Amino acid sequence: MKRRMLALVALLAVLLTACAKGDDQQTVTGVTEPDQTGTEEKNEEILQEDVTKPEDATSIEQEVLSLVASVRMELNRSDVTDDDGTVLCYGNLTRPEVFIDGGEVAAAAINDVLMAQAAERHAAVQSAAQQAKTDRPLLEETGGFNGYSVSDLVTVARLDGKTVSLLWSASDNLGGAHDSTLTTAWVFDVATGDRLELKDVTGDYDALAQLLTERVTAEISAAPDRYFSQAAEQIPQLLETGSWYFSDQGLVLLAPPELLAPYAAGTLEFTVSYADLEGLLDQPWMPAEAADSQGEPQIALQTDDGAPAATMAVQADDSGAEMVLWTDGVLEDFRIWRVTSSDGVTWYRGGCCYAVDRLEDGQVVGLTAMLPDVMTNVMISYTADGETVYRGIGESGKDGSVFFLELDTVID
């Protein structure tokens, strides 16, 4: 019995020693024994596969490309009155709100920046009202007082899975002969939510700055009477402090009033096409080839039987017909616009109420808008066959249903 116990103890010791050796061999990698020819090369191949992981890079790229961005314009009427009810300042403000499917954190970062700008504009209304209250007695004595005004117009310049580019035009009338208007551009990275500067979109800023300088200089030389005599000397300041944005055509540099030309010239724009930017603009910021819609727009009143439920609410007016818009396929570059006026042939496009990179099957937009009996004051647009298609929205005088109108000519 004693000898059997000793044999078991010896066997257990051998097994433990074997396990220890096995553990040591698992923890030591890349060690080449004399009889293990080629093991080191195989280990390097395995490590290389672990480092590169091409399938992960592909999945990240697909995730970025799948982002769909949209912008909704929220109207904010904020008139300020005096103690007797007289309007001191008319506030017509617009606050853009960005949505990114699959990029909620980036959208929140963008909206924080836009909300701060909207707060500044709201403060401008209050400031204008205080000034109007002070100026009102003298103005009423000398020629009447009609109230001051502060208004905004926000335009979507480019919207896709890469960038959201917005133009924010702020117009203030504080009793002068005309409004004081300043347009600034806001360019955001859809993937991160960062606001982009010129240096962020190129690997060779000096070359990009040289190209922009040459373009602005050429336009000044082509029409010198439109600019200040020293305008060319202000180009470095323009590149340093000027605003810029991505449009559908290229990179646009903005010159504020009175920097290069008299105030009456307004904000000046200088565009460099994407073709000219090839090799200078980092590839992620080059636009993808335009896609054509594969569906047709659908419309119905929200109260109609079978009308789908809205996933997004948009207001063109404070009240009016409540309808839903959707598609039976995909509508590329889908937007909802106000109509400022029309003579029945030419339709003048107003501000954008809503824009989305592509409206897909299952996305339903709820829209509130006034629909006059004869003319429409709201329309949609999307891309088909390489062209922008516009459709007005009308309301039937017979049964109150809503339908799309063919529009002959649409201009800004």
What order do the helices and strands come in, and which of them pair?
Elements: H1 2-27, H2 39-52, H3 54-65, E1 68-77, E2 80-81, E3 87-101, H4 104-142, E4 148-159, E5 163-173, E6 180-189, H5 205-222, H6 235-241, E7 243-246, E8 250-255, E9 268-273, E10 297-301, E11 312-315, E12 321-327, E13 330-342, E14 346-360, E15 365-369, E16 378-384, E17 387-395, E18 402-406, E19 409-411
Parallel strand pairs: 3-4, 11-15, 14-19
Antiparallel strand pairs: 1-3, 1-14, 2-3, 4-5, 5-6, 7-8, 8-9, 10-12, 12-15, 13-14, 13-16, 16-17, 17-18
**What are the segments in which pLDDT stays under 50 over at least 5 consecutive residues?**
1-64
Radius of gyration: 31 Å
Sketch the major β-sheet: 12 strands, mixed
Number of helices: 6
Named CATH architecture of the largest domain: 2-Layer Sandwich
Strand content: 35-45%
CATH superfamily grouping of the largest domain: Fervidobacterium nodosum Rt17-B1 like
The secondary-structure class comes to alpha+beta
User: H/E element string?
Assistant: HHHEEEHEEEHHEEEEEEEEEEEEE
The global form is: globular
Termini gap: 105 Å
Architecture overview:
With 412 residues, the protein is α+β, with helices and mostly antiparallel strands. It folds into 3 domains: 67-195, Fervidobacterium nodosum Rt17-B1 like (Heat Shock Protein 90), CATH 3.30.565.40; 197-288, Heat-shock cognate protein, ATPase (Actin, Chain A, domain 4); 297-411, no CATH class. Helix content is 28%, strand content 36%. The chain has helices at residues 2-27, 39-52, 54-65, 104-142, 205-222, 235-241; strands spanning 68-77, 80-81, 87-101, 148-159, 163-173, 180-189, 243-246, 250-255, 268-273, 297-301, 312-315, 321-327, 330-342, 346-360, 365-369, 378-384, 387-395, 402-406, 409-411. Strands 1, 2, 3, 4, 5, 6, 13, 14, 16, 17, 18 and 19 form a 12-stranded mixed β-sheet that branches. The protein has a 4-stranded mixed β-sheet with strand order 10-12-15-11, with no helix packed on it. It has a 3-stranded antiparallel β-sheet with strand order 7-8-9. It starts with a helix and ends with a strand. Residues 1-64 have low confidence and may be disordered.
